[in-house]
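Input sequence (168 aa), recorded before submission:
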Amino acid sequence: MNEKVCVGAIAGAFGVRGEVRLKSFTAIPEDIASYAPLETEDGARSFTVKVTRQIKNGLAARLSGVATKEAADDLRGTQLFVPRDRLPSLPDDEFYHADLIGLEVTDTGGASLGKVLAVINNGADDLLELSAPGQKQTVLLPFTKEVVPTVDLAQGRIVADPPEGLFS
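Predicted structure, token format:
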């Protein structure tokens, strides 16, 4: 399985000496450097990472081959990936966001609630953004054990017990 997982994104230059603003999607933000080399999605570029300090909304970091502010700015918006097999295994009740996206969500009676479009971290609990049948807008489902009692990656499905009125 040669699947890649997005572990971060470059938000632009930080300062004038080639550092980048780095958004880390790892549980402990600074750990992103330990998964290096990080690659662009197409695999065309690869970077080693040295986190230099924490900054507002992310990290300041040095990437190999990026020595100027202009080179750092050119990377703005670039997502950074690692091969899945480089990531640690998780306990049974934890999931990589990449594994949840695209899963079918049903209620406890088996009725379809939609598909997971994204996993959003709002600071407290994660939210599953669903494209729900018959809904014009996406629905945000709290990703807690109470609301989502079952995640079955092998079957590609999630069973949810949504709060009253969420889908009306």
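Checked by second reader. The mean pLDDT is 90.
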